[in-house]
Amino acid sequence: MSEKTPPAFDDSHPAYGKISDEQFSFLTQYLSNKYGLRIPREKKVLLESRLVKRLHALKMTSIAAYIDHVFKTEHADAEYQLFVDHITTHKTFFFRENYQFEFLKNLLPDYYRRLGSTRQVNIWSAGCSTGEEVYTLGIVLNELRNDMPSLDYRIVGSDVSVPSLKSAAKGVFSSELENIPDRIKEKYFTVVPGRKNPSLRFNSPEVTSRISLGVLNLNNKQYNLPCHFDFIFCRNVIIYFDARTRNEVLERIVARLKPGGYLFLGHSETALGTTLPLKSIQPTIYQKLMT
Ligand SMILES: C[S@@+](CC[C@H](N)C(=O)[O-])C[C@H]1O[C@@H](n2cnc3c(N)ncnc32)[C@H](O)[C@@H]1O
Prior knowledge:
It is a single chain. This protein is of the alpha/beta class. The protein folds into two domains: about 20-85, Orthogonal Bundle (Chemotaxis Receptor Methyltransferase Cher, domain 1); about 100-290, Rossmann fold (3-Layer(aba) Sandwich). About 40% of the residues lie in helices and about 20% in strands. It has a seven-stranded mixed β-sheet with strand order 6-2-1-7-8-10-9. It has a three-stranded antiparallel β-sheet with strand order 3-5-4. Helix 2 runs antiparallel to helix 4 (about 75-85) and helix 5 crosses helix 6. The radius of gyration is 21 Å and the shape is globular. The mean pLDDT is about 90. S-adenosylmethionine (SAM) binds near residues 96, 159 and 164. S-adenosylmethionine binds near residues 92, 128, 219 and 235.
């Protein structure tokens, strides 16, 4: 892949970090085939600004060198994970779209009763990023156990980004904490000492013992998951996919939902206009039909 490159590491050179048309086609084609991601031309500058961070970190001279490094060298594995992490958007926060968690809270007592007390509620956070959604679900379910001590639940969090999942597993958060009520902060988090930015560690073994995290590319034709789910949260993920991938992913996700179970999408995502066996309960919340 050829382009005019600055002669040595020189991040003030006007060509530094610029993606040529040929490189843009290569990268977007690759990301579309592998992950279903749609990156329109207008996003070229965004792509450059994300990859230039890796160029800086590696003191690389050009995007061409970076592409060679990621796709051709034996060091690719670790850098490949960072490449995927930098390409994808990870914005998330605790209690995001809280009306959905309120909906879950109100629904669960009846839902659980119908399951029979010996059953387990299984929840999947598909595209969980750095874990805020997973821990929010853990808090919501654990709080419900105050009135329903027998409530047994498991939460699976999956994402395509290994660095994000590692961060989720650490459970240390220094931002995106604003929506957490003080009482919940005190109950579920401890302050991490000696940090410049005040950081909180999620510290509830009772909840974390019910959470498992794993890598899953939603664009894979088959999903390796431990069970079918009562509730699936796939929020602010399919918005990044092309139309075909969006439909295929929704189809595979809904196949993983138990009849009568619920699907939660992000505020600008919809399952309307598909032929999936779903009933729309309210915008972004769907129930899988029983037959
Ligand atoms: C904006 S975050 C959403 C996080 C969380 N669900 C929320 O709503 O706050 C989108 C996540 O989707 C993940 N993602 C993107 N493409 C994916 C794919 N093909 N398979 C699985 N996860 C993917 C990204 O890595 C990112 O962490």
